[in-house]
Amino acid sequence: MRSDRGLERRYDTGMATHFSNEALKFLRGLKRNNDREWFAARKDIYERELKAPMLALIDEVNDAMVEFAPEHVRPPQKIMMRIYRDIRFSKDKRPYKTNVAGWWVRDGLQKTSGAGFYFHVSPVEVIVAAGVYMPEREQLLAIRRHLAEHHEEFRSLMKARKLRSLMQEGDGMKLTRPPKGFAADDPALDLLVCRQWGVEATLPPEVATMPALVKEIVARFKVAAPMVEMLNAPLLGKPRKPLF
Fold this sequence. Notes:
five-stranded antiparallel β-sheet
């Protein structure tokens, strides 16, 4: 693995992986022409300007994550998400996503929906996010029970100055009433009514073309890592050292 000093050297010299203007042009075109014929005629552009840089970028992000979230480091091919949409049960039959994305799941939770780190580039934005977004029913209950017991620690993590300066808390897809099994006067109720927990940053699409792209991603992943670890704790059955 490359050292953080090596990463900084690449940022300073413009060597860190980023996307080209041609990549954003391709995504804008795909958004207007989301069909197999258009994509097939330009697949070489996708492979060269989007897939190859994305895999290289993931590799560089992985190098940095060894220091603060090593359990989320996996081969780039496992982290990069397919551009092909699953249209089997969807009324929307457009075959392609209009972004390139990566999802850093935690080791041991690959087949479920634990908390992780997410990044995507689209024609209109760059998204850097972290949290748990589609927990299975049993996971949802486990996280809620964990937050009921440790809500003060979770609130402290979410109020961290560095985290709040770089990312915003999501809306949580909140219920309108307490979830089954939890009291209306529970001191953690505002957390328990959520169906997802996470933070994200929305950046202009042009950020994807800048040499500092990897640095922007890593900085946000790093400040969100304690939150991700806490959300995964009840899903792993392993003790973790509390914040306080």
